[in-house]
Amino acid sequence: MKTKFVVITGGVLSGLGKGVVTASIGSILKAQGYKVSAVKIDPYINVDAGTMRPTEHGEVFVTEDGGETDQDLGNYERFFDENIFKKHNITTGQVYLNVIQKERNLEYDGKCVEVIPHIPLEVRRRIFKVAKDTKADYVMIEVGGTIGDYQNVLFLEALREMKREYNNMIFVHVAYLPVPGNIGEMKTKPAQHSVRALNASGIQPDIIIARASNMIDKIRREKLSTFCNVKEDAVIGAPDVFNIYEVPLIFEKQGLGKKIVEKFGKKYKKGKLSKWESLIKKTKKLKKTVKIGIVGKYFDIGDFTLEDSYISVIEAIKHASWNNSVNYKIEWIDSKKYEKNKSALKELDKYNGVIVPGGFGYSGVEGKILAIEYVRKKKIPYLGICYGMQLAVVEFARNVCKLEGANTTENEKNVKHPVIDILPEQIEKLKQKKYGATMRLGTYPAKLKRGTKVRKLYKNKGKVDERHRHRYEVNPEYIERLEKKGLVFSGKSPDRSLMEFMELPKHPYFVGAQAHPEFKSRPFRPAPLFDGLIKAAIKKRIK
Ligand code: GLN
């Protein structure tokens, strides 16, 4: 196999943007004409991210083949402009599950199955499978967690062994360099310690990425070089940026692409990063801004808000805004406040567009429905994604069709008007408590109705594919009643049984999708429904 591996580890802190670093390194290699792919290793026992609360873990990114994966796979897709699949996310849970299953099937020929060597071997088998299936020249391997964590030790062991035998591998360590307020100086000590901890696992980094608020200077490069045993020019600065798509350019400017290929004995060809350069140039010059309100609930952890739960939605807003030559400003709205105080709804007037993104369960739902009613009546551009579409149907049923108390059975089992109901194939799964990876997941096609806004946005295509993650659907028994009052189902599954898209033709922009169009949005190919929202938002009054 000719694949080369670039392993990315993280030190000092979590949340360093290791995913963006990984995706950016892949991008500069891709720009040199190489085929690139990536693997994310997650140390948790969950088999996949699907059973985790978004505030615990961030967004659950859905792949084409229906994987419920780590949000970093979204970064890889957006930076590489390529699809990444379920098997590219390896978790401790998957590894152990497989080893134990194999043991039960007598696949170890009567051997004693042990943590070493069998767990690292299974990790390796999975990494090599990705390399083989993608035929990539370079596979990035991002190790989740922080060096020093007990739970990623076995993955480091697997990678150390892999390097010994396979050799076509380099290690890049991303470490945080704090600038403590009271000192006002960038400190390298925590990074030094994290490299020591990595050394204790038998791994010596080839390159150090110095993540900090500022660019690392010469003195601190020298320090890291001396204490961490890397060449000075192998310390690469990664300062905070306004726009993550600038990171590949910052790395390339410091010669990172050259350094990596030369470490593998390859000759450097100057990479073509011009499309990223023009994007950054363009975004720095934008004058007008659209203000988008996102009404959701997975925002806060303790006293802090975390945008990670909706990262693909945020990226999709960015892509669509830039495509329309405007800046974006996103504000997070906790729907529960509308339940307590309806007069607060007036604040929605200040947005050029409103989104209700995907979600689950009862909390905050009535507030979301109130917000949807408000933007429908006030003709504020609206995009409802998955739950956001389902709740738009509930709102329309209650307030326009006068189906009193209409609801989704997700929240009210014996509701009088179950306008959103469980998908028939899901009933049995829930009865048996089979929650993991059992939703309607991944890509499904929809046929679009002629003359609709949605079809126009999809460049008048008759059939489109989007990625799904849901258990509930628009109840077929209510379709006629909803349509009679003016709600248009602009897209349906090919057998016409499932309502995939909806819109209100008389509204400037009131569109819903059962799928999650944000997962397929790319920097140079915005998701059509987000593009439509931004276009309508611009028309609404823009400052
Ligand atoms: N809770 C809804 C369902 O399961 C919507 C899911 C979502 O928004 N992804 O159908």
Describe this structure in words.
It contains 19 helices and 23 strands. With 543 residues, the protein is α/β, with parallel strands linked by helices. The chain folds into two domains: 4-280, 3-Layer(aba) Sandwich (Rossmann fold); 287-542, Rossmann fold, CATH 3.40.50. Strand 7, helix 7 and strand 8 form a beta-alpha-beta unit. Helix 1 (18-30) packs parallel to helix 3 (72-80), helix 1 packs across helix 9 (247-253) and helix 5 packs across helix 6. The radius of gyration is 25 Å and the shape is globular. Bound molecules: glutamine.
CATH architecture of the largest domain: 3-Layer(aba) Sandwich
Q: What's the domain count? A: 2
Structural class: alpha/beta
If strands are numbered along the chain, what order do they take across the biggest sheet? 13-10-14-15-23-22-21-18-19
Count the DSSP helices. 19
State the shape: globular
Strand content: 15-25%
Largest sheet: 9 strands, mixed
Fraction of helical residues: 25-40%
Poorly predicted segments: none
What is the CATH H-level superfamily of the largest domain?
A: P-loop containing nucleotide triphosphate hydrolases
Mean pLDDT: 94
Q: What is the CATH third-level topology name of the largest domain?
A: Rossmann fold
